[in-house]
Amino acid sequence: MQNQTSPLILTFGPADPVGAIGVHADLAVFSALRCQGMAVTTALLIGDSARVEDQQHVEPDWVSDQARVVLEDVQVSAFKIGAVDNMEHISSIAEVVSDYPDAPLILDPFSSQLPQLPEEEDPEELLTVLRQLLVPQATLVMLSQVELGRLAETWRDPANGETVADDAQHLIDLGCEYVLVTGTQAHVGRSDSSLRANTLYGDGGVLRHDPWRHLAGPFIGCGGALSAAIAAYMAQGADAPQAVELAEQFTHGALSHARRYGMGKFVPNPFFQMQ
């Protein structure tokens, strides 16, 4: 018997029966990268490897209580916050993580897999609360270019001509240290429609611009695998640019060895290095 020595990471997100997205997928990535994961469940999903059909949100008090009890027992090396589509959850999580400012926090708040918001949730108000409460506490915010545009509409007029770099800088000015925008246009010498890029912004500009070639899919859980891997590498002491580079390499391997469980989409294989 011995004390835990590998980094501990606490992740917040929905529980997916298939384990393709949400906290179960995060825990697999953490384990594959030699970290110990713990999970706070924010919603229970009904779905398979093709789609999520419905979800049941967990009571906000249960979300905060899950986290508080764990954090009173252990010291975590990083936090990851996954898909959040409930304002009360955002408030509860923001209050919890505010007590641990020294631990890196990776915020990956959107998922195209989740069902549409219930009628009682105002999408713009939800994005505004997310921007006000969680973005300022994040070490790194990860968004697709489309998601960044949606979030930016809560503070600017789309007709003003701001660029992706302007929007990323605005989030950094709010308090987060880095913004990773996925699926941007690859800056290469020749036009290639199969090339995309992930661009990491820090205060003042671009820190990394990593082109990647589109892999045949369809996949489910790609973004979650990337943000979970970033959290794992930062929990082990890597700075954000290095963690992003290593996480991209890991995610490419997981997608290259993805598995199809049934008739749905391909699921990233975080344990490909062991096989």
Features:
alpha/beta; 8 helices; 275 residues; nine-stranded mixed β-sheet; two-stranded antiparallel sheet; UDP-N-acetylmuramoyl-L-alanine:D-glutamate ligase
Describe the structure concisely for a colleague.
It is built from eight helices and eleven strands. The chain is α/β, with parallel strands linked by helices. The strands form two sheets. A nine-stranded mixed β-sheet has the order 3-2-1-4-5-6-7-8-9, with helices on both faces.
CATH top level assignment? Alpha Beta
The CATH superfamily is known as: Ribokinase
Low-confidence stretches: none
E-strand count: 11
Quickly count the domains.
Answer: 1
Q: Strand arrangement, largest sheet? A: 3-2-1-4-5-6-7-8-9
Q: Over the alpha carbons, how many angstroms does the gyration radius reach? A: 18 Å
- Put simply, the count of helices is 8
- Helix and strand content put the structural class at alpha/beta
Strand percentage: 15-25%
- What assembly state would you assign to the polypeptide chains in this entry? single chain
What is the rounded distance between the termini?
A: 28 Å
CATH architecture field: 3-Layer(aba) Sandwich
CATH topology (level 3) name:
UDP-N-acetylmuramoyl-L-alanine:D-glutamate ligase
Describe the model.
The structure is a single chain. The protein is of the alpha/beta class. The chain has a single domain, classed as Ribokinase (UDP-N-acetylmuramoyl-L-alanine:D-glutamate ligase, 3-Layer(aba) Sandwich). The protein is built from eight helices and eleven strands. It has a nine-stranded mixed beta sheet, with helices on both faces. Strands 10-11 form a two-stranded antiparallel sheet. The chain is globular, with a radius of gyration of 18 Å. The protein starts with 7 loop residues before the first strand and ends in an 8-residue tail after the last strand.
